[in-house]
Amino acid sequence: MPTRNFSSVIENDDGGPVTGGFDASLTDMTNEELADMSTIPGWNLVHNPPRHNPRGALVGKVVSDKMQKTVNVAVDRYKIVPKYRKRLRYTKKFMAHDEHEVCNVGDLVMIVPCQKISRHKHFMVREIIRAKGQL
């Protein structure tokens, strides 16, 4: 089975639209080559592997960071009303433990359940997905 090398095409890529200047089209590739995703030209540029979130993880926006080592995270959930074919937004706020106090108001964060830390706090900040002001 001959291996095809597309590294020269990727090295000379200027980021513009793909115009089909490859030395072999996808129709000429064998099933074995198509099964190996790394041989498909441009696959590493467009493919993002799926994200596996931990069990019970929630994604929300930080609405308050005025407490010590604690942030208030608003989690939005949507429910579709079949009669009107509209969606309703339900917002629930959770207190989450932020050990190093790195979260700011407006950050999009992932929180995961943990052992109860205080009366209202039973989540921890796992990661900051997007800081406020970033795309």
Strand order of the largest sheet: 1-2-3-5-4
CA radius of gyration = 23 Å
Unreliable spans are none
Dominant shape? elongated
Beta percentage is: 35-45%
Q: Would you count the extended β strands for me?
A: 5
Q: Helical element count?
A: 3
Q: Secondary-structure element sequence?
A: HHHEEEEE
The structure class reads mainly beta
The termini sit apart by 43 Å
Biggest sheet statistics: 5 strands, mixed, barrel
| Average pLDDT reading | 82
State the helical fraction: 10-25%
What does this structure look like?
- This protein is mainly β and 135 residues long.
- Helix content is 10%, strand content 37%.
- It has a 5-stranded mixed beta barrel.
Short description:
By secondary structure, this protein is mainly β. The chain has helices at 7-11, 31-35, 43-46; strands at 58-67, 70-81, 86-97, 108-113, 121-130. It has a five-stranded mixed β-barrel.
Primary descriptors:
135 residues, mainly beta, elongated, 5-stranded mixed barrel, single chain, 3 helices
Question: How are the secondary structure elements laid out?
Answer:
Blueprint (H helix, E strand, L loop, with lengths): L6 H5 L19 H5 L7 H4 L11 E10 L2 E12 L4 E12 L10 E6 L7 E10 L5
Parallel strand pairs: 3-5
Antiparallel strand pairs: 1-2, 1-4, 2-3, 4-5
